[in-house]
Amino acid sequence: MNAPLLPHNSTAQLYRNALLAVLAWTLVVAGSLAWNISQQHEKTFALAKNEAIANINKDFAFRQWGTSHGGVYVPVNPATNTIPNPYLDVPERDIQTPSGRQLTLMNPAYMVRQMQQNHADLFGVKGRITSLKPLNPNNAPDEWENRVLQSFDRGVRETAELTTLNGVPYLRAMRAFMTEKGCLKCHGHQGYKVGDVRGGVGAYVRMEPYLANERTGIATLSITHSGIWLLGIVGIAFMARRGARRTSERNAFTQALQESEERNRMLLDSTAEGIYGVDREARCTFCNRAALKMLGYATEAEVLGKNMHQLVHHTLADGSPNLMENCHLLATLREGEKLFVEDLLLWRADGTAFPADMSTFPIRHGEGITGAVISFHDISERKQAQQVLTRKTEDLVRSNAELEQFAYVASHDLQEPLRMVASYTQLLARRYKGQLDQDADEFIAFAVDGANRMQRLINDLLTFSRVGTRGKPLEPVDCNAVLKDALENLRLSIEETGASVTSDPLPTVMADTSQLTQLFQNLVSNAIKFRSDQVPQIHVSAHRQDNEWIFSVRDNGIGIAPEFFERIFVIFQRLHTREQYPGTGIGLAVCKRIVERHGGRIWVESEPAQGSTFNFALPAMPEKTRE
Amino acid sequence: MKYPANAVDILLVEDNPGDVRLTEEALKESRIAVNMRVARDGIEALEMLRGEGGYADQSLPDLILLDLNMPRMDGREVLRQIKSDDRLKHIPVVVLTTSEAEKDIIQAYGLHANCYITKPVELEEFMEIIKSIEGFWLTVVKLPDGLGK
């Protein structure tokens, strides 16, 4: 059996996965953002540094130009802060043009510094030129410069760093400059040699424009990343939702399937009918509880996959093997025919067998037959009951036949001695009447009367038993003609009593003509016999009721009390003395026997002194054979 | 045995002495002289007819009254043998029995019985029937003369 799926587990799994996806996506987007921001930073730094370096290069170029000329003589002009350099101790520092204009030698560092200080606004960059051993103490390095200059001594040639100045962010850069031949003019006395690190040219770059740029970039990145992140989250949520819906659909489907499976199983197992399925090769695909029980297996696993033909249907009742190719049940697998087979033998696990009725039903997929479902039930009990019933019926038929035979033979064999008694008492009476005394005559008369009555009884008994033994096959009989014959037989008594016998049109029924004649004759004859003081009025009619014709013989005779309604149909039962009404009590018993032999029934409706109606029902003929 | 020349020979095959006596009583009232011999079963009847056993010198009867149900050999077998015996088959056989069975009647005529009569219960009727047999077979009917006599 399938283990039941737990839907909530699967949903939880789905949500956990979705959460992981969200986390991973967030990390990716955040990582990308961080990387982009750092790139932006580096770019900003590089841009600022480039500017600083460009500035430094320009200062270099400018200084080199000155150095290559050994300085430049410029007019002294205190207004522009151009005064003789007090720290420059070189000959001809101050000269006079022939026209008397005062010129002073402006050494390269001085030139550069002046330009840096006076024209920095043009560049927006503050330049610095400094040295660990400045000639002008005002040009001494600050703390940062000092550190960088020292690093130059250790071989570093260029440094750029972000820093702040009075709380404003700046990029500071400094490049080492080397002692050249021209330098020695002014700095030779300080002990520098060509190739020594003379000092550094530095630059401050205001970071604000770059940072503003950077902030704009970061803002753009943040916005685009947020957008992408959000898109991803929406996607994940969408997927998760779809997944959840699918999961729930699948769960619902699985559950429905499971419930259906359980219901089928329950149905299968609750029926008393044995049911199993086979595939094309007759191998068991399922087997319900009733089938397992009947076949003597404990679990379904014992039969699953087994060839069911060989397992339960391998041998015929006569002990010969039931070949698979001859098995009519397997014809269902071959030809796709539904089959019902009665009373075949099925074999149990313990080697015993039982009789069963079996139905097979093909399973089709498209054109092909993929297997069959077989249902069966044990008919042992039914067969036993049938056998008992058959035996009892046979017994009954035999005993009935024996009884009839007995009645016939007995009455027949009784005839012989009775004839002797009757004949010889009659002979006695014939020869000796009046010759003996009166007693003898009376005795003889009683003997003759007894013998005569015995004779009638035996004749009636014979008549009664002949209804069964002498009956002719039933054929369509016109009841109008039959009634006419019966009345003809009764003509004498009808005339004697002045009886009026009327009838409605009567149908044609399946009957034995002579017995039906006797039936009408007995009933009409009874109606005349048991007449009241009135002239007998007898009416014969018939009406259709469902599949029967109900015949009625109504009279205005003495009637019958209800307590005798059953008794009057029993043989030799009489309600009156022989002196009142002669007869043996056979007439209605014969009527009942005749009607029953025709598959009908007879009954009476009556009240004393109100007349009687004798009804009998006979099966109607099928419509198609009626004219 | 010697009988008057005009006397008629009847063989009654009947096992019941009561019936034998009744038949005799009825014939006593007859107008014709009748010689009646009685065989008590089928074997005795055939012996008498074929002159076997102790009946060597007997002549053939003019009429046979045959009961059907008898011990040893029943009337049906007797009838069959009589009617397949060239010496005997010309003798009229009247089956006189209690049986009213259709089967018996058909079978008897099938075996060439000349007529089939059911014994009536009433003595008067029995007497009448014996008289009719006598009247018909011994008076009305012309039988072969002198055969076997």
- How would you describe the shape of chain A? rod-shaped
Strand portion of chain A:
15-25%
Intertermini distance of chain A: 67 Å
**Major β-sheet strand ordering of chain B:** 2-1-3-4-5
How many structurally independent domains of chain B? Answer: 1
Low-confidence stretches of chain B: 1-5
Cα-based radius of gyration of chain A, to the nearest Å: 70 Å
- Which pair of protein chains has the largest interface, and what are the residue counts? A-B, 13 and 13 residues
Class by SSE composition of chain B: alpha/beta
What is the molecular shape of chain B? globular
Number of strands of chain B: 5
**Gross CATH architecture of chain B:** 3-Layer(aba) Sandwich
Low-confidence spans of chain A: 1-7
Regarding CATH, which class of chain B? Alpha Beta
> What portion of residues of chain B is helical?
25-40%
Question: How would you describe what is shown here?
Answer:
The complex is a heterodimer of chains A (627) and B (149). Chain A has 627 residues and is an alpha+beta fold. In chain A, 48% of the residues lie in helices and 21% in strands. The longest helix of chain A is centred in the middle third of the chain and has 63 residues, at 208-270. In chain B, strands 2-1-3-4-5 form a five-stranded parallel sheet, sandwiched between helices. Chain B has one domain: Rossmann fold. Mean pLDDT of chain B is 84; it is low at 1-5. The A-B interface holds A 412, 415-416, 418-420, 422-424, 426-427, 430, 455 and B 16, 18-19, 22, 25, 98-99, 119, 121-124, 126.
